[in-house]
Amino acid sequence: MSPSRRPGSSASRAVRFQLSALLVAVAGWLATPANASAHGGLKSSDPAPGDTVRSVLTRIRLDFSEAPEMAFTSVQLRGPSGSLIDTGKPVFSGPLTLVLSFPGVSAPGTYTVIWRTAGKDGHPVRGRFTFAIAPRGDAPVPAAGTTDAVPAPFPTAGMAPMEMHHDSSALPSGGPFDAQSTGYAVIRWFQFATLVSLLGAFAFQYLVLGFLRRKQHPDSPMLAVARRRAAEIAQWAAVALALLAVVRLLAQSLAMHGGADVMNLRMMGPMIGQTTWGAGWLLQLFGSALVFAGLRFASRNSRRGWAIAAAGALAVAFSPGLSGHAASTPNISGLAVAADALHVIGAGGWLGSLLFVVIVGVPAALKLESEQQGPAVADLFNSFSPTALLFAGITATTGVFAAWLHLRSVTALWQTDYGATLLVKLTILSVVAGTGAYNWLRVKPALGKLEGAARIRRSATFELAVGLLVLAVTAVLVATPTAVDEEMMRGTDASIEAQLPGPSPVDTTAAGIER
């Protein structure tokens, strides 16, 4: 006699296999180093890369392709011996221009300028270039790039605008860890997953349970249990989001200041208080605290407590846009940040509310009398459906707007790193959408019995797991230079190359821009 098989076991194995395959594929993709590039960079300078100065040098000008945040900016000048020359702090002489003014440098030899900055999104960019000061009498200067022009560890060069390097000794601070590092991407992944979960609690409370009240008696024990449990989980999510804010601050400090100064409060202060990135970070921290306080108060005054918490959740939804591409969008950054916040709210209202349906709503329904359980689960998912449609529509609309903003052309989808990453996200997202459509067309009509409840719960869990992979790709996407950035950098490269001297023995492989 052949052993009996539990109904649905084959389907469950197929679902697990598909999820495992997706997870392995995304994990491998995340572990693969991305092609390094930059949001903005050094567009021109005076002295230019490879120049020979024949007078006393008292001023260095740096022109960037994107407005630098002064709190993130550091510029060093090192002499022929590699020693640091006191030039004071850089100051703005225009929206995109920084100037260093100092008493004067005239010793002959090759000098190295090492700079680091970041735009409004907080993504660090760093680079270096060299120039020479002619000796008295205009005797020939050792060509930049010769072995005796600059002692180690400062290899000499004119400039290689997009040549990436990881020579931390040549940087004023920081190192290989930056916004595109796998570790930083994992932190953002946890942050996005927690944020989506937190926002889902409010969509569940106000919409899913709101629709459910129309189908059940307002005093139904299922509603009270679900509301209380949702508040408890949302409080934990708020605590986790606040802790992740602290971790993200340390990661940003490590990317900008290096391991030696990662805990330097004097450097952290301006980074938090004087930058757009810092404003987003503060919104995440204080918004999380407001959510926690409001939900604690909700145990005494449910309506007012949830309203206070909702205000905090709304504030937190704006945090990612202030530390991502939206904040650095030229001319319409306000609109871009607002659209990004709506995109985050859409994802939370869609996938986050589904999470609460699965881990809060279904268990609450299964605590009812046995004959009520199947119909209660059916009512629950029927209440979730219009919520999902609403927020999925918001997510799709704002996603299309963001794609237009950052791609500007269809060909950029396969010609740029940003477009390729977006295609990966859309591919995985199509699995989420397909699973939702399957639930709507095949599983939902069979609801009403416990078998149908178990089936849709498994399918919804798979949808959530794939949604986590979408958030993983998003964590990479938000730090990947956009197609517009890459186009701008190509123009920057051409501008820098125009400043370089003609054919010479200059080695242009040792310096450049690093993210």
Please provide a written account of the structure.
The chain has helices at residues 9-31, 182-215, 221-257, 265-273, 276-297, 302-317, 319-322, 333-365, 370-407, 412-415, 417-443, 450-477, 483-499, and strands spanning 42-46, 52-53, 57-64, 74-78, 84-85, 91-94, 97-105, 109-118, 124-133, 513-514. Strands 2, 4, 5, 8, 9 and 10 form a 6-stranded mixed sheet that branches. It has a 4-stranded antiparallel sheet with strand order 1-3-7-6. It has 515 residues and is α+β, with helices and mostly antiparallel strands. A hairpin with a 2-residue loop joins strand 6 (91-94) and strand 7. The protein has 13 helices and 10 strands.
Helix/strand layout:
Layout: H1 9-31, E1 42-46, E2 52-53, E3 57-64, E4 74-78, E5 84-85, E6 91-94, E7 97-105, E8 109-118, E9 124-133, H2 182-215, H3 221-257, H4 265-273, H5 276-297, H6 302-317, H7 319-322, H8 333-365, H9 370-407, H10 412-415, H11 417-443, H12 450-477, H13 483-499, E10 513-514
Parallel strand pairs: 2-9
Antiparallel strand pairs: 1-3, 3-7, 4-5, 4-8, 6-7, 8-9, 9-10
CATH class bucket of the largest domain: Mainly Alpha
Q: Give the CATH topology of the largest domain.
A: Formate dehydrogenase/DMSO reductase fold
Q: How many helices in DSSP terms?
A: 13
Strand content: 5-15%
Secondary-structure element sequence? HEEEEEEEEEHHHHHHHHHHHHE
Give the N-to-C terminal Cα separation: 65 Å
Average of pLDDT: 78
